[in-house]
Amino acid sequence: MNNTGGFQFPDFYHFPPFFTIQPVLITREKQLAQWRELILKYHTDLRIKTLVIHECPLWKNASIDRELDRDEINLVMNDFVKSGHGEWEDPEIRTRCRILWRRPEQLASDIYEWAAANGYINSVCTIYELHSGEDVNGMSFQGADEQLLRRALGILENQGKCAIFKGETSDEDGLKFF
């Protein structure tokens, strides 16, 4: 539960009041923005696609003996999802949140910029190549959740910037960029 993979925590994570939801609205809004930033950076840096509420090490900072309680975690996570950076995988019970490293629209733009910069316009590649190929090292969509990746590609398809066609497996589904 305390595996943070060498992640470098921001200074505010070591400030005890960070772990108490602030009663003054403007202060709470700033605090929730810091929680959004922390959750997103942690999961993006460590390439974690899903936040499992009861397994997330962010809720407790043992070095200052502080942690969020269940209601505070719910408040933070509801704000995170409302901001568009996450989606409940199980909306009824809210125990698992898909982390949107980038919003689908941002990811679509990143993918198209990559395709244009790397000579993929009027060329074909597979979903697998886009997700895990050598040409995507360091890109925002490398290793992204497949459902999120497909949503981004759907945006590009609706914009007339690519066509998606079926392969024998989902990894073999192809793309042609225009």
Automatic annotation (TrEMBL):
InterPro entries: ESCRT-II_cplx_Vps25-sub, ESCRT-II_cplx_Vps25-sub_N, WH-like_DNA-bd_sf, WH_DNA-bd_sf
Keywords: Protein transport, Transport
Gene3D superfamilies named in the record: Winged helix' DNA-binding domain. Chain C. Domain 1, Winged helix-like DNA-binding domain superfamily/Winged helix DNA-binding domain
GO biological process: macroautophagy; protein transport
Pfam families according to UniProt: ESCRT-II
Regions annotated as coiled coil: none
PANTHER family given in the database record: VACUOLAR PROTEIN SORTING-ASSOCIATED PROTEIN VPS25, VACUOLAR PROTEIN-SORTING-ASSOCIATED PROTEIN 25
Family stated for the protein in its record: Belongs to the VPS25 family.
Protein's name according to its UniProt entry: ESCRT-II complex subunit VPS25
Species of the source: Cyclotella atomus
